[in-house]
């Protein structure tokens, strides 16, 4: 009887453990798939935003992306291109170190990499209310149509938003100068990478 009782306990424990592990594995797999899909959607929307292509919802964003954005792998790097209002635009996903986290996003330019079409962010974990404000529209809108001076964008004095699109300058975020400067450094690195890949001169 004791042996049967012990065998029952072992079997029961094994079955419960097996079921528990199976359920956890299933949930992890399902969650990973959802996370992957969400990350892809965030990326697609950032690319469309960078190109200045409007969409009404997630489904429309996916459809517009498939129909209008070409992806070419050049030198191992994905280069995105599209045509907006008759103008050819190119873009590249960027990633680099912020003050507290890795910052990734998308920057689009004209075909000669002389003027930024737009910038959007895919992921960042900078300080909320400070560096995290790089995702605010006023900050991102500064980059739109900004002319590159000597091939670069420059983050300058703190203000509400630099509205001059011919000086190659954008305002830093109050209290987040280091994150703002990190964004400047990352974007300039990838603008140069895009320039080299496309074979255009500064």
TrEMBL record:
<keyword id="KW-0520">NAD</keyword>
<dbReference type="GO" id="GO:0010181">
    <property type="term" value="F:FMN binding"/>
</dbReference>
<protein>
    <submittedName>
        <fullName>FMN-binding domain protein</fullName>
    </submittedName>
</protein>
<dbReference type="InterPro" id="IPR010204">
    <property type="entry name" value="NqrC"/>
</dbReference>
<dbReference type="GO" id="GO:0016655">
    <property type="term" value="F:oxidoreductase activity, acting on NAD(P)H, quinone or similar compound as acceptor"/>
</dbReference>
<keyword id="KW-0472">Membrane</keyword>
<dbReference type="GO" id="GO:0006814">
    <property type="term" value="P:sodium ion transport"/>
</dbReference>
<dbReference type="GO" id="GO:0016020">
    <property type="term" value="C:membrane"/>
</dbReference>
<keyword id="KW-1003">Cell membrane</keyword>
<keyword id="KW-0812">Transmembrane</keyword>
<keyword id="KW-0915">Sodium</keyword>
<dbReference type="InterPro" id="IPR007329">
    <property type="entry name" value="FMN-bd"/>
</dbReference>
<dbReference type="Pfam" id="PF04205">
    <property type="entry name" value="FMN_bind"/>
</dbReference>
<keyword id="KW-1133">Transmembrane helix</keyword>
<keyword id="KW-0830">Ubiquinone</keyword>
<keyword id="KW-0406">Ion transport</keyword>
<keyword id="KW-0597">Phosphoprotein</keyword>
<keyword id="KW-1278">Translocase</keyword>
<keyword id="KW-0813">Transport</keyword>
<keyword id="KW-0285">Flavoprotein</keyword>
<keyword id="KW-0739">Sodium transport</keyword>
<keyword id="KW-0288">FMN</keyword>
<keyword id="KW-0997">Cell inner membrane</keyword>
<feature type="transmembrane region" description="Helical">
    <location>
        <begin position="7"/>
        <end position="27"/>
    </location>
</feature>
<feature type="domain" description="FMN-binding">
    <location>
        <begin position="98"/>
        <end position="194"/>
    </location>
</feature>
